[in-house]
Amino acid sequence: MSAHYDVVIVGGGIAGLSLASALAGKCSVALVEAEQTLAYHTSARSARQLIPSYGPPVVQELTVRTLELIAGQDAGRPEPVLSPRSFLLIGDEATVRAQASGHMRRITHAEALDLCPALVPDSFAAAGLDTGSFACNAPVLLEDHRRRAEAGGVDIITGARVHSAQRLGSGWELGAGQEGFQAAVVVNAAGAWADELAVLSGVEKVQLQPYRRTAAIVDVEHPLPEICPMVAAADDSFYFRRDGEQVLISPSEHEPSGPEDAQPHPGDIERLVARLNTLTTLGIRGVRTSWTGLRTEAADGVPVVGFDAEAPGFFWLAGQGGYGFQTSSGIAELAAGLILAGQEPGPASRTAEALAATRWSIRR
Length: 364
Prior knowledge:
single chain, alpha+beta, nine-stranded mixed β-sheet, 20 strands, about 25% helix
């Protein structure tokens, strides 16, 4: 026997959980997750920084909205999700100028050194600062979405990998783990596995590509001051930020991968440690832990959110790339509105059109 729902969300990362929270109490919802725990893959491996100046214009717009929504709920939380942490971009003059956006202002070399005294003065020529950036307590946000979803009647089932999916009359029938589900709408929030779920469902994939991103927590001789911004190279070759008395570092690699439980490649962190020990005075002396996540992107680098062009009731919520947390609440708000409006909503907003699964720029 299959359980009946209005919506079944496939994927229990930040995308699926935030949508479940947004839909809770407005329709019947089930969320199914292949792993035994929620947010096991990319959502558990985030840099935990929300940066309004990061990403294309529609992503920046969604980031600002996400910050508004999270901040509005923080007053009612025992532990806030957001805490101020600026974002400092460094590099040569031309690259910083090209990367700086409307949310970032140029600052002098001396100002950058004051903000992050660990930087070696001749390691960069120019800098930009985003003071609207925030540190994100990802576990608190994920748990808050889970709690709100379940309080609103959402059924969350873990250890339930989807193994079958087909159109059935006016809806969908899914097999996940030992359970069966019927729903009018299936939401593909499967992250790096989103295209695989589409193929399983008989839906044309949108050519999503997962990319590796490795990070590590390292011990240092000279901890960063509490007010130090997150620091990133304008050429996307590294970033680092304070993590208590330790420092989080990343080589910011963008290496294609298949969907998998990604692990660090030998040597990646060690090479970055050697480089940062020449560019900074951190004095990195050991790696405490390291991990790799997958950032899944569409061809145009913009998330894919909306109903499929050919498969009624199949809703894409994928391709968030490195913007998952920072756009999550804004995208969930948009996606919930589209789903509740149905397959034939009124005129699409500019944001909905930019993210739509029907846009030509993702069909390569």
